[in-house]
Input
Amino acid sequence: MELLFEKSVKGRKSHILPACDVELVKPSDSFKRVQELKLPELSENDVSRHYSALERRTYGVNNGFYPLGSCTMKYNPRINEVAASLPGFTEIHPLQPEHTVQGSLEVLNLTEKYLCEITGMDAMTFQPAAGAHGELTGIMLFKKYHEANGDTKRRSIIVPDSAHGTNPATAVMAGMKVVNINSGEDGCVDLDQLRAAVGEDTAGLMLTNPNTLGIFEKDILEITKIVHDAGGLVYYDGANLNAIMGIIRPGDMGFDCVHLNLHKTFSTPHGGGGPGSGAVGCKSFLAGFLPKPHIVAEADTFKQVYDCPDSIGKVKSFNGNFLVVLRALTYIITLGREGIAESAENAVLNANYLMKKLSTCYQVVNKGICMHEFVLTMEKEAKESHVTAMDIAKALLDNGIHPPTVYFPLIVPEALMVEPTETEGKEMLDKAAEVFISIYQEGMKDTEGIHQKPVTTVIGRPDEVKAARNPILRYQP
Amino acid sequence: MNIPKNLKYTKSHEWVEVIEENKIRTGLSDFAQSALGSLVFVNLPEEGDDVTAGEAYADVESVKAVSDVNSPATGTISAVNEEVLDAPEKINENPYGTWFVVISEVSEMVELMDADAYEAFCREEE
Amino acid sequence: MGDYLSSTAPQRQEMLKEIGLSSMEELYAQVPGSLILQNGPDLPEGKAELEVHEIVRQMADKNHVFPVIFRGAGAYRHYIPAIVDTVVTKETFLTAYTPYQAEISQGILQSIFEYQTMICELTGMSASNASVYDGATAAAEAVAMCRERKRTKALISAAAHPDVIETVRTYCWSAGSEMELIPVKDGRTDLSALENMLDETTACVYIAQPNYYGILEETEKAGEIAHAKGAKYIMGVNPIAASILKTPGECGADVAVGEGQPLGLHLGFGGPYLGFMAAASAMIRKLPGRIVGETVDAKGNRAYVLTLQAREQHIRREKASSNICSNQALCAMAASVYMTSMGPGGMQEAAYQCMSKAHYLARELEKIGFSPAYEGEFFHEFVTKSPVNVQTLMEHLEENGILGGLPTPGGILWCTTEMNRKEDMDRLIRLIREVAK
Output
């Protein structure tokens, strides 16, 4: 398929702007651009067709099953989109006087209230734009807290080896040292290793619960106590909240700070990779450090308070991804008290059901009940027959199903991490199980053939080595 | 598995050529390049940088992974092979002909194996 | 109560039976009982869609939408061509994830590749990433790119946007590296002061073009000064202005960043916005975030794929230079559609109109006593003193549906875009005259 640039025809254009109604002023010679601006020249019809063609070469939740572990690809409700396109929200300048933005401030304040209730936190900021951004903000809160206590020796963040790559990368961006601890045989935090790892230099522990294997850390109260007793704080990576929202609160488990992925748990759409929102909640002793401004309710009005002397500062311009937060609020209002918990338990039900069905054929890592996701491994098949997790994923592409997450978590070789979410019906899970199983059986019979998959998609497997060795990162005429 | 007799080897699969008394040249062994897969990029230190025996001084990237390359010696980088930066695939094609750095003013070395010992070591690893 | 579950209650019973359980509670059997919320979170009951629609509409109605806006300061009301929202509301683009499986994501990957190309064209740089969160975080990430072992200090122009300064300051504190502000003289970065501040510990210099006051900086000279002392040069640019001003590439920048909101994104009370980042060829591998590259498949078909991933957190973990995992994909797509719909001629026309209308307004304001705070060529924003009480002025304008310029300690920061018609500006002048009386 051609690029926009390749379809360009000199002189073709749309007529978007009227003529200038004042005298034309241009930059003087010392400032003016010399280099030609080579953007595509197309008619609106060309543009419309181009993006429609691109849409056909994309796979969304609207196309089918999307069991990407750790990403929570649940259905994105359309009422959220209606809310986010109301001009009363889209046309608001972030620097309007406070009394003219009470609606938007109410949205932020109400969402804060509801999410604090769901997470067991006391205060929340919506400034971070994504999960990783939220992690950085949270660890910055820890850093500020220890600095304020004169505890400048606390520079280590403990991270389990099952953690998402953003966790250790975040710690380093916050000027911390990473202390890795290995998971136990059961895939959970090894308490002895944790006890050995904490000390006077511990700033905190970053943890996901359920963890990246979809297992609930049943020793969580002991884990948070160990870290607190050593003078550290505990950070909750909220990527897996979908398993427990409305049923268990991170605050009750002993976490001091959480980030939420509104684009995972709270149904805001993924948009092909963004925009998301990484809301960060914390207990009251950390609230003063949150980025500014703080949104505060005073009688009937909402205020933006910039006078926050203990704040870490800002992690982004203005207030964060407001229109994304609005979508999350719309979702929470829709589901309400019972709906939130019901979504979580159905996410867990669907995962266990699918896991049961696949266990007749695949090697399942999880023992017993899983949470909202589970992990399969192709380690044996890869060693004995050279059929890998990648092969299974590619074969799924020919069958209209988005593959699960592959090669994560790193502690499981040849991993396939499956997260169906609560919005899938029983018949979809039955059909998906059939497809997964038939691919496996076919693949083990024809091990050469599976390496050629996919064969029905617009391209076959891309040459990633070539792409990395000789990077071509833009079109050149 | 190709293991030239005239070179020495480290436990982390680097080869070492002793040029003079306190000067060595080093690169990655055939075992290493085979395990790493198609290499796409190398991050090397600069001339004049100090390196420490047993610690990482460079890393190599394949599409989906990054691996540290450890220094066999404590000393100073006196030469860097630019070719490796332009064409990392040469490491896969010709591991013993594609050196990474020359280290001079060597004061300490990690434990080195000769070709036979290294061959046995590799067989155990597999 | 609203929900989006597909399975019915009988179906759930069937599923429970198949996994050997008799109730949903048993799914949480291994969780310590003390942690289970007995009555659920303290939230209102769920609502039907009709009710939800009403609730959000009422909240929206509590905001005041200004029909006419003369305020910028980092967020700009531009005209968004109709095709932009049509494209970014397509369900598949909206609901797709990061394009990890290239074979079924060529649509997203190609659109990012096209976006990267457009950003390179706009900024005159060699390569662009797939975007970051916004202009402020882009600046902070660019500062991180320029850090080396012996050079870690960042010099940031005090004439940059306050949110950029604050964000960079927070990120630098976080990483434990130093940041200093380059003083401002007459609304412009003081380049002789900069010369004296540079030393062998300076990693980078950041200048915004135009700067926060709307004034055009001597960006080529600033770059020469930075490079002469061995520091890297980061330019933060307004993307509309970039179509008619000397590009960061032409000014010798090592990294170009900026806020992409003007490229087809709604004001939205501050987000989601778009951070673009582009680099000179020597800096390409230091770019954070996702990057799409071109390659082929086994049959020789052209294909797009996420590449240079070994820079990123999911591979390097604690050795990654940034933790960024995602991009602002849909916002980048909006920007691409905007730039394509406007075309090179339309982009430049929009820029000339922004600039021309600002100069008209500045002249008319000066005639009624609002003198410019600074000399110097400006793009579409400028600061004036105010001979009348600013609060009173803003209230009067608000009553008449106008959001006036931003009150700042140095004066009122006015902004015009192609959306401000001559009659709006003339009406503004008339209204101000009423306040003066």
In short: Chain C touches chain A through 200 residues (CB under 8 Å). The first helix of chain C runs from residue 9 to 18. Chain C has a mean pLDDT of 96. Residues 73 and 212 of chain C are 7 Å apart (CA to CA).
